[in-house]
Protein backbone atom coordinates (compact mmCIF):
# COMPACT_ATOMS: atom_id res chain seq x y z
CA UNK A 1 0.00 0.00 0.00
CA UNK A 2 2.91 2.36 0.65
CA UNK A 3 4.12 2.11 -2.95
CA UNK A 4 0.65 2.91 -4.23
CA UNK A 5 0.40 5.98 -1.98
CA UNK A 6 3.78 7.20 -3.19
CA UNK A 7 2.67 6.74 -6.79
CA UNK A 8 -0.54 8.69 -6.18
CA UNK A 9 1.35 11.49 -4.45
CA UNK A 10 3.80 11.67 -7.33
CA UNK A 11 1.05 11.83 -9.98
CA UNK A 12 -0.84 14.59 -8.12
CA UNK A 13 2.16 16.86 -7.71
CA UNK A 14 1.39 20.36 -9.04
CA UNK A 15 4.90 20.76 -10.43
CA UNK A 16 4.73 17.52 -12.39
CA UNK A 17 6.49 17.77 -15.77
CA UNK A 18 7.07 14.66 -17.84
CA UNK A 19 8.40 15.93 -21.17
CA UNK A 20 8.81 19.43 -22.57
CA UNK A 21 6.35 19.19 -25.45
CA UNK A 22 2.71 19.84 -26.26
CA UNK A 23 2.02 16.36 -24.80
CA UNK A 24 3.66 16.79 -21.38
CA UNK A 25 1.99 13.77 -19.78
CA UNK A 26 2.99 11.16 -22.37
CA UNK A 27 4.65 8.23 -20.59
CA UNK A 28 7.41 6.00 -21.86
CA UNK A 29 6.16 2.73 -23.36
CA UNK A 30 7.12 -0.89 -22.70
CA UNK A 31 5.64 -3.66 -24.87
CA UNK A 32 5.89 -7.22 -23.53
CA UNK A 33 4.88 -9.89 -26.06
CA UNK A 34 4.11 -13.44 -24.97
CA UNK A 35 5.52 -15.74 -27.67
CA UNK A 36 4.73 -19.09 -26.09
CA UNK A 37 3.49 -22.09 -28.09
CA UNK A 38 1.00 -23.21 -29.21
CA UNK A 39 -0.88 -19.86 -29.65
CA UNK A 40 2.17 -17.96 -30.92
CA UNK A 41 1.79 -19.64 -34.32
CA UNK A 42 -1.69 -18.07 -34.63
CA UNK A 43 -0.88 -14.57 -33.43
CA UNK A 44 2.70 -14.05 -34.64
CA UNK A 45 2.02 -12.83 -38.17
CA UNK A 46 -0.96 -10.65 -37.23
CA UNK A 47 0.78 -9.07 -34.25
CA UNK A 48 4.04 -8.35 -36.10
CA UNK A 49 2.22 -6.85 -39.09
CA UNK A 50 0.17 -4.57 -36.84
CA UNK A 51 3.24 -3.52 -34.88
CA UNK A 52 5.24 -2.83 -38.04
CA UNK A 53 2.42 -0.73 -39.49
CA UNK A 54 2.08 1.29 -36.31
CA UNK A 55 5.80 1.95 -35.91
CA UNK A 56 6.09 3.11 -39.51
CA UNK A 57 3.43 5.73 -38.74
CA UNK A 58 4.64 6.74 -35.28
CA UNK A 59 8.26 7.17 -36.36
CA UNK A 60 7.25 9.47 -39.25
CA UNK A 61 5.03 11.93 -37.38
CA UNK A 62 6.01 15.57 -37.07
CA UNK A 63 4.76 17.84 -34.34
CA UNK A 64 4.96 17.23 -30.59
CA UNK A 65 6.48 14.02 -29.26
CA UNK A 66 3.73 11.45 -28.66
CA UNK A 67 5.89 8.45 -27.71
CA UNK A 68 9.07 9.65 -26.02
CA UNK A 69 10.61 6.20 -25.39
CA UNK A 70 9.83 2.61 -26.38
CA UNK A 71 11.17 -0.75 -25.20
CA UNK A 72 10.20 -4.25 -26.35
CA UNK A 73 10.42 -7.56 -24.47
CA UNK A 74 9.65 -11.06 -25.73
CA UNK A 75 8.75 -13.96 -23.43
CA UNK A 76 9.31 -17.34 -25.09
CA UNK A 77 11.69 -19.90 -23.63
CA UNK A 78 13.14 -17.09 -21.57
CA UNK A 79 12.78 -13.37 -21.03
CA UNK A 80 14.54 -11.37 -23.72
CA UNK A 81 14.85 -7.62 -24.23
CA UNK A 82 14.72 -7.17 -28.00
CA UNK A 83 14.80 -3.39 -27.83
CA UNK A 84 16.07 -1.23 -24.95
CA UNK A 85 14.59 2.22 -24.49
CA UNK A 86 14.99 4.21 -27.71
CA UNK A 87 13.33 7.23 -29.24
CA UNK A 88 10.65 6.43 -31.78
CA UNK A 89 10.73 9.46 -34.10
CA UNK A 90 13.05 9.00 -37.08
CA UNK A 91 14.18 5.57 -35.87
CA UNK A 92 12.12 3.24 -38.06
CA UNK A 93 15.08 1.22 -39.37
CA UNK A 94 15.96 0.01 -35.90
CA UNK A 95 12.34 -0.50 -34.93
CA UNK A 96 11.69 -2.53 -38.07
CA UNK A 97 14.67 -4.80 -37.41
CA UNK A 98 13.33 -5.39 -33.91
CA UNK A 99 9.93 -6.41 -35.30
CA UNK A 100 11.62 -8.82 -37.70
CA UNK A 101 13.53 -10.33 -34.80
CA UNK A 102 10.25 -10.81 -32.95
CA UNK A 103 8.78 -12.44 -36.05
CA UNK A 104 11.67 -14.90 -36.18
CA UNK A 105 10.90 -16.40 -32.77
CA UNK A 106 9.88 -20.02 -33.46
CA UNK A 107 6.34 -21.09 -32.72
CA UNK A 108 7.22 -24.69 -31.96
CA UNK A 109 8.57 -25.99 -28.69
CA UNK A 110 7.59 -27.31 -25.31
CA UNK A 111 4.36 -26.02 -23.86
CA UNK A 112 4.78 -24.39 -20.47
CA UNK A 113 2.15 -24.41 -17.79
CA UNK A 114 -0.04 -21.38 -17.15
CA UNK A 115 1.67 -20.65 -13.84
CA UNK A 116 5.14 -20.78 -15.39
CA UNK A 117 4.09 -18.48 -18.22
CA UNK A 118 2.53 -15.99 -15.83
CA UNK A 119 5.69 -15.96 -13.72
CA UNK A 120 7.78 -15.16 -16.81
CA UNK A 121 5.45 -12.26 -17.59
CA UNK A 122 5.74 -10.94 -14.03
CA UNK A 123 9.53 -11.08 -14.23
CA UNK A 124 9.44 -9.24 -17.57
CA UNK A 125 7.37 -6.45 -15.98
CA UNK A 126 9.86 -6.09 -13.14
CA UNK A 127 12.82 -6.13 -15.55
CA UNK A 128 11.26 -3.39 -17.66
CA UNK A 129 10.67 -1.20 -14.60
CA UNK A 130 14.25 -1.72 -13.45
CA UNK A 131 15.56 -0.87 -16.90
CA UNK A 132 13.44 2.28 -16.95
CA UNK A 133 14.84 3.44 -13.61
CA UNK A 134 18.39 2.88 -14.82
CA UNK A 135 17.72 4.73 -18.06
CA UNK A 136 16.25 7.74 -16.26
CA UNK A 137 19.10 7.78 -13.80
CA UNK A 138 21.78 7.87 -16.50
CA UNK A 139 20.24 10.38 -18.94
CA UNK A 140 20.00 14.12 -18.87
CA UNK A 141 16.20 13.92 -19.13
CA UNK A 142 16.12 11.91 -15.95
CA UNK A 143 18.26 14.44 -14.10
CA UNK A 144 15.72 17.16 -14.95
CA UNK A 145 12.47 15.30 -14.29
CA UNK A 146 13.67 12.59 -11.90
CA UNK A 147 11.03 10.33 -10.46
CA UNK A 148 8.20 12.36 -11.98
CA UNK A 149 8.61 10.57 -15.33
CA UNK A 150 6.30 7.56 -15.58
CA UNK A 151 6.14 4.43 -17.72
CA UNK A 152 3.21 2.44 -19.06
CA UNK A 153 3.57 -1.31 -19.67
CA UNK A 154 1.43 -3.14 -22.25
CA UNK A 155 1.47 -6.93 -22.04
CA UNK A 156 0.14 -8.91 -25.02
CA UNK A 157 -0.89 -12.50 -24.33
CA UNK A 158 -3.05 -15.28 -25.74
CA UNK A 159 -3.81 -16.83 -22.36
CA UNK A 160 -7.07 -16.10 -20.51
CA UNK A 161 -6.74 -12.44 -19.64
CA UNK A 162 -8.50 -12.37 -16.30
CA UNK A 163 -6.30 -15.05 -14.82
CA UNK A 164 -3.18 -13.21 -16.04
CA UNK A 165 -4.41 -10.00 -14.40
CA UNK A 166 -5.08 -11.80 -11.14
CA UNK A 167 -1.65 -13.45 -11.09
CA UNK A 168 0.09 -10.16 -11.89
CA UNK A 169 -1.77 -8.39 -9.09
CA UNK A 170 -0.70 -11.04 -6.65
CA UNK A 171 2.88 -11.17 -7.89
CA UNK A 172 3.46 -7.40 -7.97
CA UNK A 173 1.76 -6.38 -4.72
CA UNK A 174 5.10 -6.07 -2.87
CA UNK A 175 7.08 -4.52 -5.76
CA UNK A 176 8.12 -0.88 -6.06
CA UNK A 177 5.70 0.54 -8.63
CA UNK A 178 6.21 4.26 -8.12
CA UNK A 179 7.18 4.89 -11.76
CA UNK A 180 4.46 2.60 -13.18
CA UNK A 181 1.53 4.64 -14.43
CA UNK A 182 -0.51 1.80 -15.88
CA UNK A 183 -0.24 -1.91 -16.62
CA UNK A 184 -2.47 -3.01 -19.49
CA UNK A 185 -3.02 -6.68 -20.29
CA UNK A 186 -4.17 -7.20 -23.89
CA UNK A 187 -5.69 -10.59 -24.57
CA UNK A 188 -5.74 -11.63 -28.23
CA UNK A 189 -8.58 -14.04 -28.89
CA UNK A 190 -9.93 -15.85 -31.92
CA UNK A 191 -13.59 -15.91 -32.82
CA UNK A 192 -13.96 -19.44 -31.43
CA UNK A 193 -12.44 -18.45 -28.09
CA UNK A 194 -14.96 -15.71 -27.33
CA UNK A 195 -17.30 -16.48 -24.47
CA UNK A 196 -15.22 -19.28 -22.96
CA UNK A 197 -12.96 -19.17 -19.90
CA UNK A 198 -11.80 -15.63 -20.69
CA UNK A 199 -15.19 -14.23 -19.70
CA UNK A 200 -15.94 -16.62 -16.86
CA UNK A 201 -12.90 -16.82 -14.57
CA UNK A 202 -12.82 -18.85 -11.42
CA UNK A 203 -13.81 -16.86 -8.32
CA UNK A 204 -10.89 -15.84 -6.16
CA UNK A 205 -10.57 -16.45 -2.47
CA UNK A 206 -11.67 -13.57 -0.18
CA UNK A 207 -8.13 -12.87 1.05
CA UNK A 208 -6.72 -12.86 -2.47
CA UNK A 209 -9.46 -10.49 -3.68
CA UNK A 210 -8.71 -8.04 -0.88
CA UNK A 211 -5.01 -8.05 -1.71
CA UNK A 212 -5.58 -7.66 -5.46
CA UNK A 213 -7.56 -4.45 -4.95
CA UNK A 214 -4.28 -2.70 -4.21
CA UNK A 215 -3.50 -2.58 -7.91
CA UNK A 216 -7.03 -2.42 -9.26
CA UNK A 217 -6.53 1.03 -10.75
CA UNK A 218 -3.19 0.12 -12.33
CA UNK A 219 -3.88 -3.25 -14.00
CA UNK A 220 -6.45 -3.15 -16.81
CA UNK A 221 -7.65 -5.81 -19.21
CA UNK A 222 -8.50 -5.29 -22.87
CA UNK A 223 -9.67 -8.12 -25.10
CA UNK A 224 -9.13 -7.70 -28.85
CA UNK A 225 -9.73 -9.90 -31.84
CA UNK A 226 -6.83 -11.51 -33.67
CA UNK A 227 -6.88 -9.05 -36.58
CA UNK A 228 -4.36 -6.48 -37.77
CA UNK A 229 -6.78 -3.57 -37.43
CA UNK A 230 -7.85 -4.48 -33.87
CA UNK A 231 -4.27 -4.75 -32.65
CA UNK A 232 -3.31 -1.55 -34.48
CA UNK A 233 -6.05 0.22 -32.55
CA UNK A 234 -4.43 -0.82 -29.27
CA UNK A 235 -1.10 0.66 -30.32
CA UNK A 236 -2.63 3.84 -31.76
CA UNK A 237 -4.03 4.69 -28.35
CA UNK A 238 -0.43 5.49 -27.43
CA UNK A 239 -0.56 8.46 -29.82
CA UNK A 240 -3.38 10.14 -27.91
CA UNK A 241 -2.73 12.43 -25.00
CA UNK A 242 -2.64 10.52 -21.74
CA UNK A 243 -4.08 13.08 -19.35
CA UNK A 244 -6.58 12.73 -16.57
CA UNK A 245 -5.15 15.07 -13.95
CA UNK A 246 -6.74 18.21 -15.44
CA UNK A 247 -9.77 18.85 -17.62
CA UNK A 248 -9.29 20.28 -21.12
CA UNK A 249 -12.35 22.43 -21.67
CA UNK A 250 -14.78 24.57 -19.68
CA UNK A 251 -18.13 25.04 -21.41
CA UNK A 252 -19.85 28.12 -19.99
CA UNK A 253 -23.65 28.31 -20.21
CA UNK A 254 -25.87 31.23 -19.21
CA UNK A 255 -27.05 31.26 -15.64
CA UNK A 256 -30.44 29.65 -14.99
CA UNK A 257 -33.47 31.72 -14.17
CA UNK A 258 -33.38 30.90 -10.46
CA UNK A 259 -29.60 31.28 -10.08
CA UNK A 260 -27.15 34.08 -10.90
CA UNK A 261 -24.08 31.80 -11.18
CA UNK A 262 -23.26 30.63 -14.75
CA UNK A 263 -23.21 26.88 -15.31
CA UNK A 264 -19.81 25.41 -16.19
CA UNK A 265 -19.59 21.99 -17.83
CA UNK A 266 -16.06 20.57 -17.63
CA UNK A 267 -15.00 18.42 -20.57
CA UNK A 268 -12.09 16.48 -21.97
CA UNK A 269 -11.06 16.59 -25.63
CA UNK A 270 -9.87 13.68 -27.72
CA UNK A 271 -8.27 13.54 -31.13
CA UNK A 272 -10.21 11.50 -33.68
CA UNK A 273 -7.47 11.23 -36.27
CA UNK A 274 -3.85 11.98 -37.04
CA UNK A 275 -3.70 15.05 -39.23
CA UNK A 276 -2.12 14.24 -42.62
CA UNK A 277 -0.20 17.51 -42.27
CA UNK A 278 1.98 15.77 -39.65
CA UNK A 279 3.26 13.27 -42.22
CA UNK A 280 6.03 14.69 -44.47
CA UNK A 281 4.86 12.84 -47.56
CA UNK A 282 5.31 13.72 -51.22
CA UNK A 283 2.76 13.62 -52.69
CA UNK A 284 0.56 14.62 -49.78
CA UNK A 285 -2.59 12.81 -48.71
CA UNK A 286 -4.89 15.61 -49.79
CA UNK A 287 -4.57 17.60 -46.59
CA UNK A 288 -4.13 20.95 -48.32
CA UNK A 289 -7.49 22.40 -49.21
CA UNK A 290 -6.70 26.02 -48.37
CA UNK A 291 -6.83 26.96 -52.05
CA UNK A 292 -7.57 25.41 -55.43
CA UNK A 293 -3.83 25.36 -56.23
CA UNK A 294 -3.24 23.10 -53.23
CA UNK A 295 -5.82 20.63 -54.47
CA UNK A 296 -4.74 20.45 -58.10
CA UNK A 297 -1.75 18.27 -59.03
CA UNK A 298 1.58 19.94 -59.64
CA UNK A 299 2.91 20.64 -63.11
CA UNK A 300 6.31 19.70 -64.47
CA UNK A 301 6.56 22.67 -66.80
CA UNK A 302 6.85 26.37 -66.08
CA UNK A 303 5.12 28.07 -63.22
CA UNK A 304 2.81 29.98 -65.60
CA UNK A 305 1.48 26.77 -67.11
CA UNK A 306 -2.03 25.83 -65.98
CA UNK A 307 -2.12 22.62 -63.94
CA UNK A 308 -3.89 19.58 -65.29
CA UNK A 309 -7.34 18.80 -63.88
CA UNK A 310 -7.48 16.55 -60.83
CA UNK A 311 -9.27 13.26 -61.44
CA UNK A 312 -11.58 11.94 -58.72
CA UNK A 313 -13.09 8.50 -59.21
CA UNK A 314 -16.49 7.80 -57.67
CA UNK A 315 -16.19 4.46 -55.87
CA UNK A 316 -19.28 4.30 -53.62
CA UNK A 317 -22.67 5.83 -52.89
CA UNK A 318 -23.30 6.62 -49.21
CA UNK A 319 -26.38 7.39 -47.20
CA UNK A 320 -26.16 10.90 -45.78
CA UNK A 321 -27.16 9.80 -42.27
CA UNK A 322 -24.35 7.22 -42.28
CA UNK A 323 -21.48 9.74 -42.55
CA UNK A 324 -19.90 10.82 -39.26
CA UNK A 325 -18.58 14.38 -39.23
CA UNK A 326 -15.66 13.38 -36.98
CA UNK A 327 -13.92 11.56 -39.84
CA UNK A 328 -13.93 14.65 -42.11
CA UNK A 329 -11.13 17.19 -41.95
CA UNK A 330 -9.68 20.17 -43.78
CA UNK A 331 -11.44 23.04 -45.51
CA UNK A 332 -14.32 22.25 -47.87
CA UNK A 333 -14.28 23.29 -51.51
CA UNK A 334 -17.36 24.33 -53.50
CA UNK A 335 -17.78 22.41 -56.76
CA UNK A 336 -19.66 24.07 -59.65
CA UNK A 337 -20.13 23.23 -63.34
CA UNK A 338 -17.23 24.55 -65.36
CA UNK A 339 -17.34 27.70 -67.43
CA UNK A 340 -14.03 27.09 -69.19
CA UNK A 341 -13.93 29.11 -72.42
CA UNK A 342 -12.07 26.34 -74.27
CA UNK A 343 -15.20 24.16 -74.32
CA UNK A 344 -17.66 24.60 -77.16
CA UNK A 345 -21.24 25.56 -76.42
CA UNK A 346 -22.73 22.10 -76.97
CA UNK A 347 -20.25 20.43 -74.66
CA UNK A 348 -20.71 23.11 -72.00
CA UNK A 349 -24.51 22.82 -72.16
CA UNK A 350 -24.38 19.03 -71.92
CA UNK A 351 -21.98 19.26 -68.96
CA UNK A 352 -24.32 21.74 -67.26
CA UNK A 353 -27.25 19.36 -67.63
CA UNK A 354 -25.26 16.43 -66.25
CA UNK A 355 -24.14 18.45 -63.24
CA UNK A 356 -27.69 19.61 -62.58
CA UNK A 357 -28.98 16.04 -62.75
CA UNK A 358 -26.27 14.85 -60.35
CA UNK A 359 -27.11 17.54 -57.78
CA UNK A 360 -30.83 16.84 -58.04
CA UNK A 361 -30.40 13.07 -57.68
CA UNK A 362 -28.13 13.28 -54.66
CA UNK A 363 -30.33 15.80 -52.91
CA UNK A 364 -33.64 14.08 -53.61
CA UNK A 365 -32.32 10.69 -52.46
CA UNK A 366 -30.28 12.09 -49.53
CA UNK A 367 -27.05 10.55 -50.81
CA UNK A 368 -23.33 11.35 -50.68
CA UNK A 369 -20.57 10.17 -53.01
CA UNK A 370 -17.26 8.67 -51.91
CA UNK A 371 -14.39 9.71 -54.19
CA UNK A 372 -10.81 8.48 -54.55
CA UNK A 373 -7.76 10.26 -55.96
CA UNK A 374 -4.54 8.48 -56.84
CA UNK A 375 -1.34 10.42 -56.21
CA UNK A 376 2.20 9.39 -57.00
CA UNK A 377 5.40 11.38 -56.81
CA UNK A 378 7.17 12.25 -60.04
CA UNK A 379 9.90 9.71 -60.72
CA UNK A 380 9.19 7.82 -57.48
CA UNK A 381 9.47 4.04 -57.52
CA UNK A 382 7.46 3.45 -54.35
CA UNK A 383 3.75 2.70 -54.21
CA UNK A 384 1.31 5.51 -54.82
CA UNK A 385 -0.93 6.88 -52.10
CA UNK A 386 -4.67 7.42 -52.21
CA UNK A 387 -6.73 10.22 -50.78
CA UNK A 388 -10.49 10.07 -50.31
CA UNK A 389 -13.22 12.71 -50.36
CA UNK A 390 -16.91 13.06 -49.64
CA UNK A 391 -19.10 14.89 -52.16
CA UNK A 392 -22.36 16.15 -50.71
CA UNK A 393 -25.18 18.10 -52.40
CA UNK A 394 -26.53 21.53 -51.48
CA UNK A 395 -29.80 23.39 -52.15
CA UNK A 396 -28.10 25.40 -54.92
CA UNK A 397 -26.45 24.21 -58.13
CA UNK A 398 -23.23 23.25 -56.37
CA UNK A 399 -21.60 20.42 -54.47
CA UNK A 400 -19.36 20.41 -51.41
CA UNK A 401 -16.06 18.48 -51.41
CA UNK A 402 -14.59 17.42 -48.05
CA UNK A 403 -11.53 15.22 -47.36
CA UNK A 404 -12.17 12.07 -45.34
CA UNK A 405 -9.65 10.30 -43.13
CA UNK A 406 -8.24 6.91 -44.12
CA UNK A 407 -7.79 3.82 -41.98
CA UNK A 408 -4.12 4.43 -41.30
CA UNK A 409 -4.73 7.81 -39.64
CA UNK A 410 -7.82 6.93 -37.63
CA UNK A 411 -7.39 6.94 -33.86
CA UNK A 412 -9.46 4.89 -31.40
CA UNK A 413 -12.50 6.64 -29.99
CA UNK A 414 -14.77 5.02 -27.45
CA UNK A 415 -18.32 6.31 -27.72
CA UNK A 416 -20.29 6.34 -24.48
CA UNK A 417 -23.76 4.88 -24.92
CA UNK A 418 -26.71 6.72 -23.37
CA UNK A 419 -28.10 3.89 -21.26
CA UNK A 420 -30.77 5.90 -19.46
CA UNK A 421 -32.27 9.35 -19.21
CA UNK A 422 -30.23 12.03 -17.41
CA UNK A 423 -31.02 13.13 -13.87
CA UNK A 424 -34.12 15.27 -13.52
CA UNK A 425 -32.42 18.19 -11.73
CA UNK A 426 -29.64 18.27 -14.34
CA UNK A 427 -32.23 18.37 -17.15
CA UNK A 428 -34.00 21.31 -15.51
CA UNK A 429 -30.72 23.21 -15.09
CA UNK A 430 -29.62 22.75 -18.72
CA UNK A 431 -33.05 23.57 -20.15
CA UNK A 432 -33.23 26.71 -18.02
CA UNK A 433 -29.80 27.79 -19.30
CA UNK A 434 -30.71 27.24 -22.95
CA UNK A 435 -33.90 29.28 -22.67
CA UNK A 436 -31.74 32.34 -21.96
CA UNK A 437 -30.17 32.16 -25.44
CA UNK A 438 -31.52 33.53 -28.72
CA UNK A 439 -32.63 30.92 -31.24
CA UNK A 440 -32.06 31.30 -34.98
CA UNK A 441 -33.29 29.06 -37.75
CA UNK A 442 -30.35 29.75 -40.08
CA UNK A 443 -26.67 30.11 -39.26
CA UNK A 444 -25.50 33.35 -40.85
CA UNK A 445 -21.69 33.74 -40.85
CA UNK A 446 -22.11 37.45 -41.63
CA UNK A 447 -23.34 37.94 -38.07
CA UNK A 448 -20.11 36.46 -36.64
CA UNK A 449 -17.15 38.77 -36.18
CA UNK A 450 -13.74 37.58 -35.02
CA UNK A 451 -12.09 41.01 -34.64
CA UNK A 452 -9.53 39.82 -37.17
CA UNK A 453 -9.22 43.13 -39.05
CA UNK A 454 -8.50 45.09 -35.87
CA UNK A 455 -5.96 42.53 -34.71
CA UNK A 456 -4.15 42.47 -38.04
CA UNK A 457 -4.02 46.26 -38.22
CA UNK A 458 -2.61 46.57 -34.72
CA UNK A 459 -0.06 43.85 -35.37
CA UNK A 460 0.93 45.38 -38.70
CA UNK A 461 1.46 48.81 -37.17
CA UNK A 462 3.51 47.44 -34.33
CA UNK A 463 5.70 45.35 -36.61
CA UNK A 464 6.53 48.26 -38.95
CA UNK A 465 9.99 49.79 -38.39
CA UNK A 466 9.76 53.35 -37.19
CA UNK A 467 11.58 56.02 -39.22
CA UNK A 468 13.32 53.77 -41.73
CA UNK A 469 14.96 56.86 -43.25
CA UNK A 470 16.55 59.86 -41.56
CA UNK A 471 14.07 62.71 -41.37
CA UNK A 472 15.30 66.18 -40.49
CA UNK A 473 12.99 68.08 -38.15
CA UNK A 474 11.78 71.51 -39.37
CA UNK A 475 13.93 74.47 -38.44
CA UNK A 476 12.56 76.96 -35.96
CA UNK A 477 12.13 80.62 -36.83
CA UNK A 478 10.98 82.54 -39.93
CA UNK A 479 12.16 81.43 -43.35
CA UNK A 480 12.97 83.61 -46.30
CA UNK A 481 10.93 83.48 -49.47
CA UNK A 482 13.99 82.66 -51.54
CA UNK A 483 14.61 79.42 -49.69
CA UNK A 484 11.17 78.16 -50.70
CA UNK A 485 11.42 79.20 -54.34
CA UNK A 486 12.98 76.01 -55.74
CA UNK A 487 10.29 73.84 -54.15
CA UNK A 488 7.56 76.12 -55.45
CA UNK A 489 8.99 76.03 -58.96
CA UNK A 490 9.11 72.27 -58.91
CA UNK A 491 5.56 71.99 -57.60
CA UNK A 492 4.49 74.34 -60.37
CA UNK A 493 6.23 72.20 -62.99
CA UNK A 494 4.51 69.08 -61.62
CA UNK A 495 1.11 70.74 -61.82
CA UNK A 496 1.86 71.95 -65.33
CA UNK A 497 2.82 68.44 -66.41
CA UNK A 498 -0.30 66.90 -64.88
CA UNK A 499 -2.76 69.42 -66.26
CA UNK A 500 -1.41 69.72 -69.81
CA UNK A 501 -0.04 66.13 -70.12
CA UNK A 502 3.42 67.54 -70.79
CA UNK A 503 5.99 65.12 -72.16
CA UNK A 504 9.63 65.70 -71.36
CA UNK A 505 12.44 64.94 -73.76
CA UNK A 506 16.14 65.46 -73.36
CA UNK A 507 17.21 68.57 -75.27
CA UNK A 508 20.34 68.59 -77.48
CA UNK A 509 23.53 70.16 -76.28
CA UNK A 510 23.48 73.99 -76.57
CA UNK A 511 25.28 75.65 -79.50
CA UNK A 512 28.21 78.01 -79.15
CA UNK A 513 26.04 81.11 -79.56
CA UNK A 514 23.68 79.94 -76.89
CA UNK A 515 26.64 79.18 -74.70
CA UNK A 516 28.12 82.64 -75.20
CA UNK A 517 24.82 84.36 -74.45
CA UNK A 518 24.37 82.33 -71.34
CA UNK A 519 27.89 83.12 -70.18
CA UNK A 520 27.19 86.85 -70.36
CA UNK A 521 24.47 86.57 -67.79
CA UNK A 522 26.91 85.93 -64.99
CA UNK A 523 29.69 83.71 -63.76
CA UNK A 524 29.37 80.00 -64.41
CA UNK A 525 28.14 77.79 -61.57
CA UNK A 526 30.58 76.05 -59.32
CA UNK A 527 29.79 72.67 -60.85
CA UNK A 528 28.61 71.50 -64.23
CA UNK A 529 24.84 71.44 -64.62
CA UNK A 530 22.74 69.06 -66.65
CA UNK A 531 21.11 70.19 -69.90
CA UNK A 532 17.70 71.69 -69.46
CA UNK A 533 14.61 69.64 -70.30
CA UNK A 534 12.28 70.90 -73.03
CA UNK A 535 8.59 70.27 -72.27
CA UNK A 536 6.44 69.51 -75.28
CA UNK A 537 2.76 70.02 -74.71
CA UNK A 538 0.64 67.24 -76.21
CA UNK A 539 -2.35 69.59 -76.35
CA UNK A 540 -0.56 72.22 -78.48
CA UNK A 541 1.33 72.05 -81.73
CA UNK A 542 4.80 70.66 -81.99
CA UNK A 543 6.37 74.13 -82.42
CA UNK A 544 5.06 75.51 -79.14
CA UNK A 545 7.40 74.90 -76.25
CA UNK A 546 6.96 75.58 -72.58
CA UNK A 547 9.80 77.32 -70.80
CA UNK A 548 12.03 74.88 -68.98
CA UNK A 549 12.58 75.55 -65.30
CA UNK A 550 16.05 76.72 -64.45
CA UNK A 551 18.09 74.62 -62.11
CA UNK A 552 18.64 76.12 -58.70
CA UNK A 553 21.77 75.69 -56.69
CA UNK A 554 21.63 74.08 -53.30
CA UNK A 555 18.76 71.71 -54.20
CA UNK A 556 20.59 68.64 -55.44
CA UNK A 557 18.21 66.39 -53.56
CA UNK A 558 15.30 67.55 -55.74
CA UNK A 559 16.92 67.18 -59.16
CA UNK A 560 14.94 64.05 -59.97
CA UNK A 561 11.58 65.43 -58.92
CA UNK A 562 10.48 66.52 -62.42
CA UNK A 563 7.52 64.46 -63.59
CA UNK A 564 8.17 62.55 -66.82
CA UNK A 565 5.27 60.97 -68.62
From TrEMBL:
Residues 507-521 have a biased composition (Low complexity). It comes from Oreochromis aureus (Israeli tilapia). GO terms for biological process: male meiosis chromosome separation; meiosis I; spermatogenesis. Residues 555-565 have a biased composition (Acidic residues). This is Meiosis 1 associated protein. Residues 464-486, 507-565 are annotated as: Disordered.
Amino acid sequence: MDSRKRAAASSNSPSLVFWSSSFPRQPARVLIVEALPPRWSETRTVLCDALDNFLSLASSLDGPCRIPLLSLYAVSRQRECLLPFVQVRGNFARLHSCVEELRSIPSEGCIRGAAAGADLLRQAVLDSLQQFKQYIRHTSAGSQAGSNISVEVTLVTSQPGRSIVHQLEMGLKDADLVSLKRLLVVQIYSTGDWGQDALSPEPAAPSETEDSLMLGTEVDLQQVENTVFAIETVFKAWLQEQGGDREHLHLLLPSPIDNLIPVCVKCDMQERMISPALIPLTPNLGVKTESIRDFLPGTKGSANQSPAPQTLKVIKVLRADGVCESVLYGLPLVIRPTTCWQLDWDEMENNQNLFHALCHTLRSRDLFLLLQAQKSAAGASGPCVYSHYILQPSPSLSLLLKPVVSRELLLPCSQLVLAQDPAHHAMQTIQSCLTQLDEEFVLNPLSLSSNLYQHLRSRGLLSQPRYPYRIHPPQEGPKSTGSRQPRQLQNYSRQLGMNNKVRATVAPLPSSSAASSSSSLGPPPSKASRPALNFLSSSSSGSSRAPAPTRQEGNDDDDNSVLIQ
